[in-house]
Amino acid sequence: MKSPSSSPQKDPILNPNSSPNKNMHDPDEALKHALLKLRPRPVSQSGSTSPYSESEPESDSSNPNPLPAATALLSDELLLKVLDKIHDRKQHITNSLVCRRWCVLSGKLVKSIKLIDWEFLESGRLSFRFPNLEDVNLVPACIKSARNSGILLSNKLIEVRLSSGMVENGEGLFVRKGDVFESKEIDIGVAILAEGCKNLRRVVLMNVSEEGLSCLAKECELLQEMELHNCGDFALRGIYNCKNLQILKLNGNVNGVYDSVVSDIGLTILAQGCSRLVKLELVGCEGSYDGIKAIGQCCQMLEELTICDQRMEGGWLSALSYCRNLKSLSFQSCKKIDENPGLDEHLGSCMILEELHLRKCHMQDKQGVKALFVVCQSIRELVLEDCWGLDDSVFAAATIFSRSIRSLSLKGCSILTTQGLESVLLSWKELDRLRVVSCNNIKDSEITAELATLFSLLKELKWQPDSRSMLSASLAGTGIGQKGSRSLRWN
User: In this structure, how many other beta carbons lie within 10 angstroms of the beta carbon of residue 93?
Assistant: First the structure.
């Protein structure tokens, strides 16, 4: 009997001592031999490599990533559900690099995108690559700017990459007409987007005309929110068929960036075409009484109205009374409220209005501020933040809210004094929430017994008029804010 060491190997392919020439006559055996040579051998704990057995499943050694092979048996629908479970949306970009199939499936999971390259839209690759888009911002791609520029202009309304030529154009505007694609080019791109992404819910556009908006309204019936930049009056005729549009932000004139005109004509067209609006924001619009009246009469579902950098003619405030279902009214960065509001008895009022917000507004005009408070006399919440010119005499007009207001928030009102604040607060019988932050002329040492008593009845108090405020220490042990659900907060 031969010893085991001298016994022949059953498989000559796996026998390192066997001659390869004996098996070269069989093509199948030669191919198998080559594949086995290419396969990596596992390393044992001792550091030696062991050959594979014939029973081991063979894999495609040319595929360096085993993930596509591992998921090959899954249907597209099932794999799409698996990929959708990833909460980090940025991971979809990484997943799209695995293979072509994952690239297609990951593109279906992308819902929102901000376009930078206009050619990507015109070529049709945007809708092909991301067929299920719901939120698209085209503004960065509409502006001809240097991508690698280190100058970024941002004013919370728009972001623009600037070149030195755009900064020194001498026209007082960072974005000239020649820096933006013409309306015809943008209309073509919008038409391609509308035909390829019919599930759009929100879109941000710039310099689009009536034709482009009409195509968007026709193809995207689910469209609910729109933001328009640098669009004139007659372009708004294109959204006449956006029957489901509920939220609209209309940017007319943006200081230093671009200059377009939206007047009563555009506001009237808008009102007649978008009767289902719930939220409207007007930025730099040059309307008047007629335009606001048209919006109030036609958009009867309107609940939130924001006026930013208003350029309207005097007397427009009285038109707010036509917005009968308005619940929230906001003013932002307005240099004026109303230069000629008229008599109080002609102003009317918004009977179900609940909130009035003024942020970064000029409030030196006592007559305009008083007229605004008359129109909003039924509010329950008043917010004043970083408003210039808000002194004791102007704030005194807020006593008209004595029957309804429950919450007051003051921030950055640096010339309002403790006496001015107290004179108004003591007239408000229903107040239960007060927030005072960064109002340097309101002092702890000037708080009277009446004001301290009022504090003890509040459900919520945030008191930090300046960095030296010591009221929290002086009220310790007094029981203020300890009754029932009432609380006293210090931040």
Answer: 10
